[in-house]
Write a structure and sequence with these properties.
Layout: E1 2-6, H1 11-20, E2 25-30, E3 45-48, H2 54-63, E4 68-71, H3 78-81, H4 85-104, E5 109-115, E6 126-127, H5 138-157, E7 160-166, E8 168-170, H6 185-193, E9 200-203, E10 215-216, E11 218-220, H7 221-231, E12 238-242, E13 248-249, H8 250-261, E14 267-270, E15 279-282, H9 285-291, H10 299-310
Helix pairs in contact: 1-7, 2-4, 4-5, 8-10
């Protein structure tokens, strides 16, 4: 199968490409704004192209036979999206260009990198795919809007899609990826350990959880890649959550980091951040049933691979 991977030089995309080239021909499209050229497996063909550049994207389709697409490319910082809607509208505009190229070149399958941010702040701890979507950021809105576009292109142009809604992705796939603009807790803790930050601030100690700090569902990037590759071979059309169904509190994560890395670091406890729910866990029942997928790696393995990546 000839697979086009957008955003294939980024954290998740490059990990996926590394696995795909073992059994598929892979074409990568990435504007390299955050992706790194050296992370792209040498067996893949790389195009430095932005999806908003319709003519350049059209050239990629014209030069290559494409059977399926895995679509990672997107801006993804929640806070930035609330300050720069113009920039984040490119998530939607680029996807429209991609879908139109698929129609023109008769490409009938796309796996889309979506997000749990489409749910906003649900009133239940365990989130399944039927949970109401109420994004609380423009980033979440763009992802939900793209899911709706996929549904319409399926109905009108018979393009099959699976939208994989991720929860908190962590770990390393052996490519030693270091986040250049850390927003998530794993790379933030690593920056504290490395001395790039003075301390880790934990927001909220009075949540109705087992230790008062917020609980989140962390999924290993390698497990995530496995799900994308499985999705390429299923006929299902629709939404699938990707998570472990289990959660770690922030305090538990801090203890695990110190245990695995053997490093001490300063932790400061502050007030809750507005809009942060107490517990967010994924139901992965649908992923198990449809993809025959289940997460294999635990939080300590994610911490170990992250630590090794930052110290490579």
């Amino acid at each position: 199968m000839n697979v086009l991977v957008t955003g294939g030089a980024g954290f998740i995309g490059s990990a996926c490409v590394r696995e795909l080239v073992k059994s598929h021909s892979v074409i990568v499209v990435d504007n390299l704004s955050k992706g790194r050229k050296e992370l792209v497996d040498s067996k893949a063909k790389l195009y430095e192209v932005d999806l908003t550049n319709q003519s350049a994207l059209e050239s990629v389709f014209a030069e290559n036979k494409i059977d399926a697409i895995i679509h990672f490319a997107a801006y993804k910082a929640v806070d930035e999206s609330m300050e720069d809607a113009v920039k984040y509208s490119d998530n939607v505009n680029g996807t429209i260009n991609l879908l139109n190229a698929m129609v023109k070149h008769n490409v009938k399958q796309i796996i889309f990198s979506s997000t749990a941010a489409v749910y906003g702040m649900p009133d239940k701890d365990v989130i399944d795919e039927d949970t109401e979507t109420k994004p609380m950021s423009f980033y979440g809105f763009t992802k939900l809007n793209i899911e709706q576009l996929l549904k319409w292109y399926h109905e009108i142009h018979n393009i099959n899609y699976i939208a994989l809604r991720y929860f908190n992705v962590a770990g390393d796939a052996g490519l030693h990826y270091v986040d250049p603009a850390a927003k998530n807790i794993f790379p933030i803790i690593m920056e504290v350990i490395e001395g790039k930050r003075d301390k880790l601030t934990v927001f909220g100690t009075d949540y109705p959880t087992r230790d008062g700090t917020a609980i989140r569902d962390y999924i290993d990037v390698n497990d995530l890649v496995d799900a994308h590759i499985l999705a390429l071979t299923t006929k299902y059309v629709g939404i699938i959550n990707l998570g472990t169904g289990e959660g770690y509190s922030v305090k538990e994560l801090v203890v695990a980091f110190k245990e695995v890395t053997g490093k001490e670091f300063i932790v400061e406890y502050g007030d809750r951040r507005p809009g942060d729910p107490a517990t967010v866990l994924a139901s992965n029942t649908r992923a198990k049933e449809i993809l025959n997928w289940a997460p294999k790696r635990d939080v300590k393995e994610m911490i170990k691979s992250t630590y090794e990546a930052y110290n490579s």
